């Protein structure tokens, strides 16, 4: 009887023991899987941070001499942004289950909203690139006038040539002054985004009776955002992009498994790239008074803060303070046009050989600037468009993740 009772009581005890052990094994496996997941996320975030740091270190290293803010350097900057954006998208995609959970959902939503504001900056920059084309066309008239094949021999510069060249220089000078004095009002009258219609458009200046004609090429491209309005301000738009952008605190990092750091990194990169574009290219109400609050502990902080400091210093130079854009080619264009105008104003006929040699040398410098602009503006505009569309696509994916993820 006691033996029977013992056997009867031992069967459920062994079952309970096996059940407890089984649950413990499941918990251990779950903990191992969770630890593996967090380890994988840590590795991806660390790799992303290292990648951003290396890209901007390379960008800072390539900005020596006159390369900083040149067309080629700005194109490298946009390439860097596109790489960072794609790698950030992959990190979020690999861990999209966490995107819809607070507080990360709010951070992602704020980042996507910053992207919307950046679209208007892209629109304004494309308008500014188009303005640079207009300036280049006037300067090409100068080159044609002063490099006519019929007047290659020494002492052959004629009064008609110089008159035509002087008029083209005056026209481009007035265009540049309009850009500085009216803060891009000419551009703001164009009600366009990335869309282009056939034919030509013109806009007038109330202070001077001259017109700026723009030929369009290709068909009509549907715009993905509204064109900037007349009251739009690049300075205010940058302030809006950087509003409430601060490094995540310790509890936010823990609550998001570190993803908050990735969001802050990409938000800072977005703000910096838009700030550089506004600094370099003519656009409405340019302003560079943006403060970057990036802790030095981030490995990518040093190159970005260094570039920011160098660009601000460049803007403070005496010959750059009132420039319509800090692009190196704009500076060279203004300098060549001003020098050539001074030479032509001092000419008396017949033209001496010394004066003619000076003009020819200035024309060669101007030709190099125009060639650089001609070869660089189209690829630069295509990259700005690519940035625009990449932001739109990533916003669509981000909103989809936010809407489908459980709380």
From TrEMBL:
Domain of life: Eukaryota
GO cellular component, one term: membrane
Keywords, alphabetical: Membrane, Transmembrane, Transmembrane helix
Compositionally biased spans, kind Low complexity: 194-206
Region (Disordered): 188-221
Recorded family membership: Belongs to the ROH1 family.
Name of protein: Uncharacterized protein LOC103703177
Organism: Phoenix dactylifera
Lineage of origin: Eukaryota, Viridiplantae, Streptophyta, Embryophyta, Tracheophyta
């Amino acid at each position: 009887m006691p033996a029977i009772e013992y056997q009867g009581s031992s069967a459920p005890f062994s079952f309970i023991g096996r059940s407890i052990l089984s649950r413990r094994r499941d918990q251990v496996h779950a903990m191992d899987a969770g630890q593996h997941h967090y380890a994988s996320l840590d590795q991806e975030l660390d790799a992303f941070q290292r990648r951003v740091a290396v890209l901007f270190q390379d960008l800072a290293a390539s900005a020596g001499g006159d390369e900083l803010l040149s067309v080629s350097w700005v194109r490298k900057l946009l390439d860097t942004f596109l790489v960072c954006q794609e790698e950030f998208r992959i990190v979020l995609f690999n861990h999209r289950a966490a995107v819809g959970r607070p507080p990360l959902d709010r951070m992602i939503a704020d980042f996507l909203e910053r992207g919307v504001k950046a679209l208007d900056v892209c629109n304004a920059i494309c308008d500014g690139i188009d303005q640079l084309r207009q300036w280049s066309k006037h300067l090409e008239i100068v080159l044609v006038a002063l490099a006519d094949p019929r007047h290659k021999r020494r002492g052959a510069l004629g009064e008609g040539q110089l008159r035509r060249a002087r008029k083209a220089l005056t026209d481009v000078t007035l265009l540049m002054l309009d850009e500085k004095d009216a803060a891009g009002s000419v551009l703001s009258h164009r009600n366009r985004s990335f869309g282009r219609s056939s034919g030509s458009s013109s806009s007038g200046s109330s202070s001077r009776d001259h017109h700026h004609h723009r030929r369009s090429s290709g068909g009509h491209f549907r715009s993905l955002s509204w064109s900037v309005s007349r009251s739009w301000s690049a300075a205010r738009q940058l302030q809006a992009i950087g509003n409430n952008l601060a490094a995540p605190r310790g509890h936010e990092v823990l609550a998001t498994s570190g993803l908050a750091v990735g969001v802050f990194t990409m938000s800072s990169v977005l703000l910096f790239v838009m700030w550089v574009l506004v600094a370099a290219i003519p656009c409405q109400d340019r302003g560079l008074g943006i403060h970057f609050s990036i802790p030095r502990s981030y490995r990518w902080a040093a190159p970005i803060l260094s570039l920011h400091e160098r660009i601000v210093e460049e803007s403070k130079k005496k010959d750059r303070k009132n420039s319509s854009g800090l692009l190196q080619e704009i500076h060279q264009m203004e300098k060549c046009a001003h020098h050539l105008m001074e030479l032509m104003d001092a000419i008396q006929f017949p033209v001496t050989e010394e004066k003619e040699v000076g003009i020819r040398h200035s024309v060669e410098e101007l030709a190099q600037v125009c060639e650089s602009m001609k070869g660089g503006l189209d690829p630069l505009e295509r990259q700005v468009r690519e940035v625009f569309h990449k932001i739109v696509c990533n916003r669509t994916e981000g909103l989809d993740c936010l809407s489908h993820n459980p709380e």
